[in-house]
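> example.struct
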């Protein structure tokens, strides 16, 4: 496996920002999924000039494998600091894979209210869907073997990078 066969995350974020810009309106709210999706959402929120506060989700309690796997170690709190009723939401995730995290995110969002619409943005779509979920905005689409994991990292200066690991 080459040192890092993955594209530059900062370039993908710039591309994702450009793709999202035409769809952003005054009633658009961004909701990042912990952890990588929140990093992306923070950057997108600023770059796109979103007026509503940034929302964050930790979908740990909404996952369909919660009873099997239990909680992961670093559970974060969810925070939606605005009324989502009637808003056009964009869920932000770092890597879209099976679709199960997105299903969990939508379930949690509906506990907060009834948005007008929900769209999905992902830095990387790696395929391998187990549920009928598709991103509206994607930085890059890649084919990665099931035994490999794509992880978004952030260094001390806030620079994003993608890392490929083998399970």
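> example.seq
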């Amino acid at each position: 496996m080459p040192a890092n066969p993955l594209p530059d995350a900062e370039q993908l974020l710039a591309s994702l920002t450009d793709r999202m810009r035409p769809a952003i309106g005054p009633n658009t709210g961004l909701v990042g999924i912990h952890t990588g999706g929140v990093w992306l959402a923070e950057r997108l929120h600023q770059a796109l000039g979103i007026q509503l506060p940034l929302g964050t989700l930790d979908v740990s309690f909404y996952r369909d494998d919660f009873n099997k796997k239990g909680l992961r170690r670093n559970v974060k709190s969810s925070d939606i600091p605005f009324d989502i009723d009637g808003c056009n939401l964009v869920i932000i995730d770092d890597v879209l894979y099976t679709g199960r995290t997105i299903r969990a995110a939508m379930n949690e969002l509906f506990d907060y209210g009834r948005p007008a619409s929900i769209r999905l943005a992902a830095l990387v779509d790696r395929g391998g869907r187990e549920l009928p979920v598709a991103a509206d905005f994607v930085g890059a689409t890649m084919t990665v073997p099931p035994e490999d994991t794509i992880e978004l990292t952030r260094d001390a200066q806030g620079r994003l990078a993608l890392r490929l690991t083998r399970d």
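> remarks
The mean pLDDT is 93.
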